[in-house]
Input
Amino acid sequence: MAGEKVLETAITKKIIKALNQLDRCLVYKRLAGPHRKGKPDITGCINGCRIEIEVKLPGGEPTPKQQQWLDRWDEVGAITGCVTSVEEALDILKRWINAKGVDDMFDDAGDYPGSQVRDP
Output
Protein backbone atom coordinates (compact mmCIF):
# COMPACT_ATOMS: atom_id res chain seq x y z
CA MET A 1 0.00 0.00 0.00
CA ALA A 2 2.92 2.37 0.59
CA GLY A 3 3.18 4.87 -2.22
CA GLU A 4 -0.40 4.35 -3.44
CA LYS A 5 -2.44 7.46 -4.04
CA VAL A 6 -5.38 7.88 -1.68
CA LEU A 7 -8.47 8.99 -3.53
CA GLU A 8 -11.18 11.26 -2.17
CA THR A 9 -13.74 8.61 -3.12
CA ALA A 10 -12.02 6.05 -0.88
CA ILE A 11 -12.08 8.46 2.06
CA THR A 12 -15.74 9.23 1.38
CA LYS A 13 -16.65 5.52 1.34
CA LYS A 14 -14.86 4.94 4.67
CA ILE A 15 -16.64 7.90 6.27
CA ILE A 16 -20.05 6.74 5.02
CA LYS A 17 -19.41 3.21 6.30
CA ALA A 18 -18.34 4.49 9.73
CA LEU A 19 -21.22 6.95 10.12
CA ASN A 20 -23.82 4.41 9.02
CA GLN A 21 -22.66 2.13 11.84
CA LEU A 22 -23.75 4.73 14.40
CA ASP A 23 -27.09 4.42 16.12
CA ARG A 24 -29.74 6.74 14.71
CA CYS A 25 -27.52 7.76 11.77
CA LEU A 26 -28.05 7.40 8.03
CA VAL A 27 -25.82 9.08 5.44
CA TYR A 28 -25.10 8.61 1.75
CA LYS A 29 -22.96 10.00 -1.06
CA ARG A 30 -24.64 12.83 -2.93
CA LEU A 31 -24.53 12.10 -6.64
CA ALA A 32 -22.78 14.58 -8.90
CA GLY A 33 -24.69 16.51 -11.52
CA PRO A 34 -25.17 19.91 -13.11
CA HIS A 35 -27.61 21.10 -10.42
CA ARG A 36 -25.50 19.85 -7.54
CA LYS A 37 -22.38 21.95 -8.12
CA GLY A 38 -20.68 22.74 -4.82
CA LYS A 39 -23.07 20.75 -2.63
CA PRO A 40 -21.41 18.67 0.11
CA ASP A 41 -20.31 15.12 -0.74
CA ILE A 42 -22.10 13.40 2.15
CA THR A 43 -25.65 14.10 3.26
CA GLY A 44 -27.88 12.45 5.81
CA CYS A 45 -29.29 12.61 9.29
CA ILE A 46 -28.30 11.72 12.86
CA ASN A 47 -30.80 11.70 15.68
CA GLY A 48 -33.15 13.91 13.64
CA CYS A 49 -30.55 16.48 12.59
CA ARG A 50 -29.34 17.01 9.02
CA ILE A 51 -25.66 16.23 8.23
CA GLU A 52 -23.77 17.88 5.35
CA ILE A 53 -20.07 16.97 5.02
CA GLU A 54 -17.56 17.94 2.34
CA VAL A 55 -14.70 15.46 1.90
CA LYS A 56 -11.23 16.51 0.77
CA LEU A 57 -7.82 14.93 0.51
CA PRO A 58 -5.46 15.90 3.35
CA GLY A 59 -4.46 19.54 2.88
CA GLY A 60 -7.46 20.24 0.66
CA GLU A 61 -9.90 23.08 1.22
CA PRO A 62 -13.49 23.54 0.04
CA THR A 63 -14.03 25.69 -3.03
CA PRO A 64 -15.84 29.01 -2.45
CA LYS A 65 -19.09 27.44 -3.77
CA GLN A 66 -18.68 24.43 -1.46
CA GLN A 67 -18.04 26.71 1.50
CA GLN A 68 -21.15 28.73 0.65
CA TRP A 69 -23.24 25.56 0.78
CA LEU A 70 -21.67 24.47 4.09
CA ASP A 71 -22.28 27.94 5.56
CA ARG A 72 -25.91 27.95 4.40
CA TRP A 73 -26.57 24.51 5.90
CA ASP A 74 -24.91 25.63 9.12
CA GLU A 75 -27.14 28.72 9.25
CA VAL A 76 -30.26 26.52 9.22
CA GLY A 77 -28.97 24.19 11.94
CA ALA A 78 -27.38 21.30 10.08
CA ILE A 79 -24.22 19.55 11.26
CA THR A 80 -21.58 20.64 8.75
CA GLY A 81 -17.89 20.40 8.10
CA CYS A 82 -15.06 19.75 5.71
CA VAL A 83 -13.08 16.62 6.61
CA THR A 84 -10.18 14.52 5.38
CA SER A 85 -10.75 11.37 7.47
CA VAL A 86 -13.20 9.23 9.38
CA GLU A 87 -11.75 10.59 12.63
CA GLU A 88 -12.47 14.19 11.62
CA ALA A 89 -16.05 13.30 10.63
CA LEU A 90 -16.60 11.57 13.98
CA ASP A 91 -15.11 14.58 15.80
CA ILE A 92 -17.65 16.87 14.13
CA LEU A 93 -20.46 14.62 15.35
CA LYS A 94 -18.97 14.40 18.86
CA ARG A 95 -18.84 18.20 19.12
CA TRP A 96 -22.47 18.48 17.99
CA ILE A 97 -23.65 15.73 20.32
CA ASN A 98 -21.81 17.26 23.27
CA ALA A 99 -23.22 20.72 22.48
CA LYS A 100 -26.76 19.32 22.24
CA GLY A 101 -26.41 17.20 25.39
CA VAL A 102 -27.27 13.97 23.61
CA ASP A 103 -24.93 12.07 25.89
CA ASP A 104 -26.43 8.60 25.41
CA MET A 105 -24.75 8.33 22.00
CA PHE A 106 -21.31 7.85 23.58
CA ASP A 107 -20.05 5.43 26.17
CA ASP A 108 -17.84 6.56 29.07
CA ALA A 109 -14.71 6.30 26.91
CA GLY A 110 -16.19 8.71 24.36
CA ASP A 111 -16.79 5.97 21.79
CA TYR A 112 -20.02 5.36 19.94
CA PRO A 113 -21.91 2.37 21.38
CA GLY A 114 -22.48 -0.25 18.72
CA SER A 115 -20.14 1.44 16.27
CA GLN A 116 -17.80 -1.56 16.04
CA VAL A 117 -20.11 -3.82 14.06
CA ARG A 118 -23.45 -2.95 12.56
CA ASP A 119 -24.76 -3.93 9.16
CA PRO A 120 -27.59 -1.98 7.53
User: Anything to note?
Assistant: Confidence is low (pLDDT under 50) at residues 113-120. Helices lie at 8-20, 64-75, 86-100. The beta strands are 25-29, 42-46, 49-55, 79-83. The chain is about 35% helix and 20% strand.
